[in-house]
Amino acid sequence: MTAQTETQPYSATGFAALYAEIQQFYARHMHLLDSGATDEWAADFTEDASFSVPTLPAPVSGRDALASAVRRTA
C-alpha cells in the first residue's frame, strides 16, 4: 500500500511551465522516432514498458523489444 499525500494544485504559471515541459518531451520523443533513433526513443520508456496497438497481434514488452519492433517497421 502506498502512502496518500496531499497535493497542491498548480498555479497558472506552474501549469504553463509543466505543459511546456511535456510538449518539449513529446516533440523530442517523436523526433527520435521519426529520425530512426530507436534505442534513444525506447530509453524514454520504463524497462518493463508494454506497448499495445491495434495493428499488432500482441503487446510489445520491454525497451529492447520496443526498439527492435520500431526498427523492423521503419
Short description:
By secondary structure, the protein is mostly helical.
Describe the structure.
The chain has helices at 12-35, 38-42, 63-73, and strands at residues 50-51, 60-61. The chain is mainly alpha-helical. It has one domain (12-73): Nuclear Transport Factor 2, Chain: A (Roll), CATH 3.10.450.50. The mean pLDDT is 88.
SSE string: HHEEH
The rounded distance between the terminal residues' Cα atoms is 42 Å
Rg, rounded, reads: 16 Å
Question: Total number of β-strand segments?
Answer: 2
β content, as a range?
5-15%
Number of folding domains?
1
User: Which strand order do you get reading across the main beta sheet?
Assistant: 1-2
Named CATH topology: Nuclear Transport Factor 2, Chain: A
Task: Provide the CATH top-level class.
Answer: Alpha Beta
Looking at the overall shape, the CATH architecture is Roll
Q: Which blocks of ≥5 consecutive residues have pLDDT under 50?
A: none
